[in-house]
Amino acid sequence: MSLKAFKLVPAVEREMLMGDKARINVECIECCGKNLYIGTNDCFVFHFLLEEKISAGKITFAATKQLHKYLGFKKAVIELKAASALNRLLVLCDNTITLVNMMNLEPIPTGARIKGAVTFTLNENPMSGDPFCVEVCIISVKRRTIQMFMVYEDRVQIVKEVSTPEQPCAVAVDGHYLCLALTTQYIILNYNTGISQDLFPYCSDEKQPIVKRIGRQEFLLAGPGGLGMFATVDGISQRAPVHWSENVIGAALCFPYVVALDDEFITVHSMLDQQLKQTLPFKEGHILQDFEGKVIVATNKGVYILVPLPLERQIQDLLTSHRVEEALVLAKAARRNIPKEKFQIMYKRILQQAGFIHFAQLQFLEAKELFRSGQLDVRELISLYPFLLPTSSSFIRSHPPLHEYADLNQLTQGDQEKMMKFKRFLMSYLNEVRSTEVANGYKEDIDTALLKLYAEANHESLLDLLVSENFCLLTDSAAWLEKHKKYFALGLLYHYNGQDAAALQLWVKIVNGDVQDFTRSDLYEYIVDFLTFCSDQKLVWKYAEWVLQKSEEVGVQIFTKRPLEDKVSFNPDNVMNCLNKYPKSLVKYLEYLVLDRKIEKEKYHTHLAVLYLEAVLQLKSVTTDNCAEFTETQTKLHSLLQQSDFYRIHFILDKIKETDLHMERAILYGKLEEHDKALHILVHELKDFSAAEDYCMWSSESKDLPYRRRLFHMLLLVYLNPDSSDCELVMAAVDLLNNHAAEFDAARVLQLVPDSWSVQLLSPFLTGAMRESIHTKRMTQITLGLAKAENLIYKHDKVKLKGSPIILSDKKLCQVCQSPFCEPAFVRYPNGGMVHTHCAAKRLMNPNMTHHSQT
Amino acid sequence: MKPDGKVVLLGDMNVGKTSLLHRYMERRFQDTISTVGGAFYLKQWGPYNISIWDTAGREQFHGLGSMYCRGAAAVILTYDVNNLQSLIELEDRFLALTDTASTDCIFAIVGNKVDLTNEYALLLETEEENRPEKPVTGCISTKVQKQVHLDDAVALYKKILKYKMLDEKDVPAAEKMCFETSAKTGYKVDYLFETIFDMVVPIILRQQAEGPLQTVEITNYKSAKRTKSGCCA
């Protein structure tokens, strides 16, 4: 409770009204603009001019008396109402409503008046639509009667009389609806249709009823138990009641507050949450009314004004006492009373302040939502955390401040756990906003702060931040990362800022153990990878040696795994110079050149072959049985020798002549087209017949059939060499023939085959050869037949084209140049179009014109 | 924000109307003081705003009930299962207040405070799966014999139908509309309100179909008149 919503300011002092006459009392009040009218119990009407003065933030009122007028009765003035459009004041005295001039209080000459009124009220939502007319509703002296009048400048006119089920004692009007306090209940009565609606019972004998129109189609009523009940013209309640004291005398409305008066206090309730907001002690009050937003309260002797404090101030007071919900409710309601532009600025600020209040109480969910909706400048939040804003940041906290905290240290009072919670919140908050428009303009501040938080908390997202698009400020971040020994991250930062040299230097230091950072256990591989994709050749060269020393096989990747679209190309000779010290790397690099890049340079191919050869020989000398490495290297050597056409064959051949690398020798002979030598080695020295067959296959790969046949015949001849009558070779010959029937010219084979061989022995070969021969014959016949058919089709076309005569006359135009033919030669297209021969020739040369013939 | 439909809680003082509503809206039980006059909450239910009025049970505020009930789409008549008089009062005193409610208003009868009865443990066992929250296991000795049984509530429901001259076939079945709850433990509180809200939606739709017509007429009529004369002719 105890919000300060209103201030009580005296308006008219007792001396100004009655001087020292003790028995004179204020009976009724009216206020219209600056005009304040007071009616007294001795039949006087006073007219004051009310001036509002603001000095040093305090509002005071000065009332200057204009005049006072005696109405000529011995009765009290019951009611005063101004009709400013008519310049009339309606005065109820002695059951008669008189119209007097608002300025001089003189009765109007026509003497128009309404007689027989107990009390009256004006319709603030008139139905007539005539601006120079007011609708007056009276409770008549006639029992159970209400009358409606139209009051003009100088005349009055009764428009309606309705009777009520009980005697009415108070009335309020809105449009066609009367809200009436009857003897035992409140009702709503539509005076136009006569339909009435009960609201609720109320005993007017015990307590004075209150009927107050508070807005369009809504009334405020005094209910049982001191309730202020809201009711609409439909007879329903749309707001929860407010709880006044039992002896409430009057009620007034000053949005969003309902003000009530009792014997001792003025109470202020909010219509928004029905809570009691303020209590002002005020004794002997007996009138409380609002006039166009001005709330006036009076005792018998004096008149006071309840000045509402600016809503903004009230909201600030609520925030100061951490009543966030109330403040926000009030702020939302203030939208009605404050210009839109101003409201939005104010409301945003309030949301932000409310956010900080929740924030300080570690209610981060609420805080976040408020910061978001209040569009908080993130730096306000960051600035609460010591050292997080970059030193270069130009940020200054908004003034007046959004909160009362100097920084987090003050807020947490050294509570480390709290501190952690605050930091975790900021981390998640910044991470969320950094990619939104909230971050616009402060991306450096946000990302730098986030980096600092991550680094400090040893958070894994630090690396993600640095490898993705970020705006971390270099100097600030670098210092911070160094301080927290995040050297790997620092390297990433350097790299992001284009300082690859610095990054590498730092990482190499980590690998060498000069500085400690265990972020990555595979940092060496990371560096290799980094260099592989590094486009700075100088930098690659600088660290090449270091990388190779660490691991020949991995290190060489900086040359071999470079992206294909790499713009910097390394001169292979330079690379090889460098790699000479690292044989394993060299082999890998040559493999890369020869096998991957397929560079057709004799030098590399020979070099690689030599290296393989040396390795094979070396392995052969140290290991006895076929170890995996040996086999692997030998396979590589074979396939290189077989597949490459660029190495110096003789050079290699020289190198292996003295060794027992028969297979290799055979391959080399094969390369030299000395197939007989090769086959000789395979058959006689290696006695490897399947290898010999393979040899025939791969040697003739990508060659034509006769070439292949020649090779197979050669092999057959080697097998059937009359010098040796090795049975094994004969068997090999038979197998060769039977398994590769298609690779032989059967006629020639039959001449070679010894007569002693049985048909049985060669039957698979013979069958195959036979089938092959028949197949060839038939295929040829088919080809012939098809060709004949095709020829016939063309002949048919030709005849067709020649069939119809073409008449060329001087009326026919060339389709290309649109001019007539003047010589007998012309070109006719298959679609019938005719053109000059020269036009056809031109068209052929200039394909742009082809569309003519297509039409 | 104008609510689309209204639900009103009626019942004698001290049966736990405010606690029921508080348990549903704020998800907790809290000692409340006697309600003065009335209070209301807004509940978003699908696309609709439903206002829930908590009325004062005290005799003093009895007269306000009719107004609160005016146009209501649902009335929740609440009694205390340990207090037979509170059920009797519903018929004697509160039923007449609902005369102002919407013609197709639905009625629910709710016996609150079942946690205080000796049957509660049994209820829990049968409803084990549906219970989101562990009950406050109070001392057995404090449990009392339940005074009002569900059958009594069903009987009252049928009386209400008779009073309203409604056919049993046209309204939800009595067994469906009689609830036993505990605001203290939360037992069946959500179930109660959500059942009611689901039933209220068709009523809202119907009210919206015919209701606004009147309102539009009035405002049109007024504003039309205004513009005609407001102009300085």
TrEMBL record, chain A:
Can you name the source organism?
Answer: Gopherus evgoodei
Q: Name one GO cellular component term.
A: early endosome
- Give the primary localization class: cytoplasm
Q: What stretches of residues are CHCR repeats?
A: 562-724
Q: Residue limits of the CNH domain?
A: 23-295
Q: Does the keyword Cytoplasm apply?
A: yes
PANTHER family in UniProt: CNH DOMAIN CONTAINING, TRANSFORMING GROWTH FACTOR-BETA RECEPTOR-ASSOCIATED PROTEIN 1
Instruction: State the Gene Ontology BP annotations.
Output: autophagy; endosomal vesicle fusion; endosome to lysosome transport; intracellular protein transport; regulation of DNA-templated transcription; signal transduction
Q: Cite the entry's keywords alphabetically.
A: Cytoplasm, Protein transport, Transport
What's the protein called, per UniProt? Transforming growth factor beta receptor associated protein 1
Q: What is the lineage of its organism?
A: Eukaryota, Metazoa, Chordata, Craniata, Vertebrata
Q: Please name the InterPro entries in this protein's record.
A: Clathrin_H-chain/VPS_repeat, CNH_dom, Vam6/VPS39/TRAP1, VPS39/TGF_beta_rcpt-assoc_1, VPS39/TGFA1_Znf
Tell whether Transport is among the UniProt keywords: yes
Q: Name one GO molecular function term.
A: transforming growth factor beta receptor binding
- Annotated coiled-coil positions are none
The cellular location(s) given in this protein's UniProt record come to: Cytoplasm
UniProtKB/TrEMBL annotation, chain B:
Q: What class of enzyme is it?
A: hydrolase
Entry's CDD domains? Rab20
Compartments where located: Cytoplasmic vesicle membrane; Cytoplasmic vesicle, Phagosome membrane; Golgi apparatus
Share an example GO biological-process annotation for this protein: phagosome-lysosome fusion
Recorded hits in NCBIfam families, A to Z, give:
small_GTP
User: What is the name listed in the Swiss-Prot or TrEMBL entry for this protein?
Assistant: Ras-related protein Rab-20
Question: Keywords of this protein's UniProt record, alphabetized?
Answer: Cytoplasmic vesicle, Golgi apparatus, GTP-binding, Hydrolase, Lipoprotein, Magnesium, Membrane, Metal-binding, Nucleotide-binding, Prenylation, Protein transport, Transport
